[in-house]
Amino acid sequence: MDLHLRGITLVYPDGEGTLTAVDDVHLTVPAGTTTALLGPSGAGKSSLLAVAAGLTRPTRGCVEIGDDTVLTPTTTVARATRVRLDRIGVVFQSPQLLASLTAVEQLELHAHLRGGRPAAARARALELLDAVGVAGQAGKRPAQLSGGQRQRVAIARALMGAPEVLLVDEPTSALDHERGSRVVELVTRLTRETSAATLLVSHDASTLGSVDARVRLVDGRLAADPAAAAVRTAPVPAGRPPR
Ligand SMILES: Nc1ncnc2c1ncn2[C@@H]1O[C@H](COP(=O)(O)OP(=O)(O)OP(=O)(O)O)[C@@H](O)[C@H]1O
């Protein structure tokens, strides 16, 4: 299913006033494709991702998956959590793995939270760890894994629920260029294979050779046309679109 962000605006309280972190963002990510979200520090990238993930309620606008409106300014926390568990996979900037669980157990826990059957969960978890290239590390705890391996486990965990939408925040920030590019390639390949609609936040445009589209946020506003196929190789345009 396609992911649609319709007029997303997020306003934070800021001292006596307010701060508009995301300002009327309209964006569609087609199923089976990866869109990279670029922009300077403080542009609102993580805020937009948090809204798309149902972790923060938008002040205005809504999130749609296919034809379903799933998140709005009035969505309850319980409903947003259910939508995330059922339909959205999230990979955070730091992998956020539980120290006491092995790689395969991290994935099984996710299935347990969703109410899945244990036997099916183990088989699926092992399959996904294999798909992300860490099958040999299934029995290891996070402390025994490299940064790249931890990130791969986090990606596999996000895919456990066969999500329609995959949201990935800065997957390469702790990795060198080579490993960073490989993690982005992995995300784009799995996105195609699972037909997810993937939005990937990145600081590092040099790792994005494999993505399908790039958009840029500047001061909370979208500043590039995501649809142009040519963006794959073209430099990222700067500046604001006309209002
Ligand atoms: N919980 C919050 N309360 C108030 N302001 C916030 C909050 N979270 C973020 N902001 C502000 O919103 C703006 C956007 O922040 P955000 O973290 O979304 O940017 P970003 O593009 O992800 O930045 P970076 O690349 O540095 O992670 C910033 O001005 C930030 O200070």
Walk me through the topology:
Layout: E1 3-14, E2 17-29, E3 34-38, H1 45-52, E4 60-65, E5 68-71, H2 77-87, E6 88-91, H3 103-114, H4 118-131, H5 147-158, E7 165-169, H6 177-194, E8 197-201, E9 213-218, E10 221-222
Parallel strand pairs: 3-8, 3-9, 6-7, 7-8
Antiparallel strand pairs: 1-2, 1-4, 4-5, 9-10
The structure holds adenosine-5'-triphosphate (ATP).
Adenosine-5'-triphosphate (ATP) binds at residues 12, 14, 19, 21, 39, 41-47.
GO molecular function, one term: transmembrane transporter activity
GO cellular component, one term: plasma membrane
Protein name: Putative ABC transport system ATP-binding protein
Whole-number total of structural domains? 1
Could you give the order of strands across the largest sheet?
Answer: 6-7-8-3-9-10
What structural class is derived from the secondary structure elements?
A: alpha/beta
The CATH homologous superfamily is termed: P-loop containing nucleotide triphosphate hydrolases
Q: Remind me, CATH topology?
A: Rossmann fold
Report on this structure.
This protein is an alpha/beta fold. The protein has one domain (3-232): Rossmann fold (3-Layer(aba) Sandwich). Helices cover 31% and strands 26% of the residues. It contains six helices and ten strands. The strands form two sheets. A six-stranded mixed sheet has the order 6-7-8-3-9-10. A four-stranded antiparallel sheet has the order 2-1-4-5. Helix 3 packs across helix 4 and helix 4 packs across helix 5 (147-158). The longest helix has 18 residues, at 177-194. The chain is globular, with a radius of gyration of 18 Å. It binds adenosine-5'-triphosphate. Adenosine-5'-triphosphate is lined by residues 12, 14, 19, 21, 39, 41-47. The site of adenosine-5'-triphosphate has 12 residues, from strand 1, strand 2 and helix 1.
